[in-house]
Specification:
With 666 residues, the chain is of the alpha+beta class. It contains 19 helices and 23 strands.
Amino acid sequence: MRRTRGLWFSVLFVLALVVSAGAGFSFGLKPTLGLDLQGGLSVILKAPDGTPASVMEQALENIRRRVDSAGVAEPDIFLAGTNIEVQLPGLAKGTIRTKAEDEFCLIGKDAATQRDVSFGCASSQVLANAARDSLSVEEVVQQACIVDPTASTTPSCFATKKAADAALKALTVKEQTTGDNVGKFCVTDGSAFFGCFDTKKAGNEAKALFETEVTSEFCLVGSMSTNLPCLDTKDAAEAALATAEVVHVTKRFCVVSSAGKDLGCYLSQALAEVGLQQTGQGKLLELIGTTARLEEREVLGTLDPAAPGYEDQPLTCDSDPVSPTPACPSKPDALAEQDVWFLGPGDVKYHLGTVQITGDQIKKATAVYDTGGTQSVAQGWIINFTLTSEGATKFGEVTTALAGKQLAIILDAEVISAPTINEPILGGQGQISGSFTEPRAKQLATVLNAGALPVQLLQQEVVTVSPTLGQASLRQGVVAGLAGLVALFLYLLFYYRLLGAVAWLGMSIWAILAIALISLAGQTVGYALSLAGIAGLVISLGVTADSYIVFFERLKDEVRSGKSARSAVQPAFKRAYKTIVAADFVTGIAAVALYITAVSSVRGFALTLGVATLLDLFVVYFFKRPTVILISRSDRLVNLRGFGLTSGVAADSESASQVTPIGEME
């Protein structure tokens, strides 16, 4: 009686686990699907051969932070030698949710896209009306440049027209006795060159043609200082002003990424759709692959495209990582203590000294839109940065030493800007400007916060899997699994009768628990089920079926040797279980070896195969063993005509109905 109670407890325990798994499924527990089952993006990045493992680990961690900042759910990022594979399942699979609001906003129309544009919001209609009445159009100077109408020299630009006029007035033609233009007559303001010529007469003729050209925007200004647009022409700005009206906003449309990250709220569904699209493939590919090596170096000299010797001066590094220049090493740090030639705005070649400040000394970077003010002009999108304590000290020392000289800001071997240091900067804060667009500024801030990649990575392979293809793969995988279960059930039912039904029930329990374990792994450790993982589960059906067949065949041998069905079960299981453990152990070793040595989806196959093998041992011992023993103790189930246990083991009913000897009783 005690042993029977233990057998029933074992069966009920397994059934309780199945019921718990079913309850979990009904409350939303489900596997996290991988790239090939729900669509997404896979990219393989290659570092130069021989890159140290520590460098690759740092690159891996920085890429992980960049992907996390984009709000992509369950990224699979792993390292194999000098390759980094990034799998982003469910790319841009975010949602748009509505959020209740109660505010009054100034809404206008974008003349180009005819979409609603917010000019700012207020808590009451009175304040919003006052803000509407305060709106006006104001010309804002973006930059003022000294240009040559013949386009033979590169424009030099300044923040204000006053500064450009002063520089134009100060231009002189001087013969160069040092530097890269010895013997040439260069137009200069004392700190920068505006072209060099073979004779002084040619230099003076060119200087006489120079003039100041102002680039302006026409911006809406008013009591609401945020979200006010700037347009290229005065007519466009006045048209936008004419469309502005006060609207009572009762809800906003918020973009939530597939990782549950809030990506911002918008006043209309259309604008939210645009925001959702910004988590697409192109943005993430650029974000992943950008090295983002930020440096600051002293400017030793420049060569504009019209200067003699421009074509003959090679660049140390260019901005094309696919075809690097011979002098450009794959590891950026190798150039830190060397003078270099990099390309800058207007195709000017900059001769630069050693690295003074690096991006890893930046504590925080933020992209902001600079609208200018009474004492400064608008610069558009810029990146404000705060340095670490060590970086702030170094920055103060550098700007003190270079007072009156230019300090170039370089990103990935390209000069973004080269401002002149007018006075030491001691506060540990600064900004990077360079005619950035909003996406470019925000991306640069993201990669600066995440850290530059310590090595140049090339995109070896980019694979895009559409959601439609992923769903088709999932459907085919499920169909394959169900077909395997049905085929096994029919075979076992035909061959083993009642024992076949036990086997099918046991395999169904195994399948439910396997899916539950995979679902829990997805929620706890980030495991994503791939098509290869489903293949591992389907193959495991064969392993599980083998376990049942081994037991049933051993039971046949025991019964045919003259034992009753009841007395044959225990010794048959003991001998069969040793064989089952040995077979599953070999399969487990293969799964572990595959998981350790393989990459990508093969690891998913190995993991599901290993988990399914361990689960097979559990179900065999705690469900199949007690169930068959309990059946053997029921004369009705043993001798059920054409379907009972006796029929399943092909023994005659006479031997099966014999009285069990006392020595063989449990």
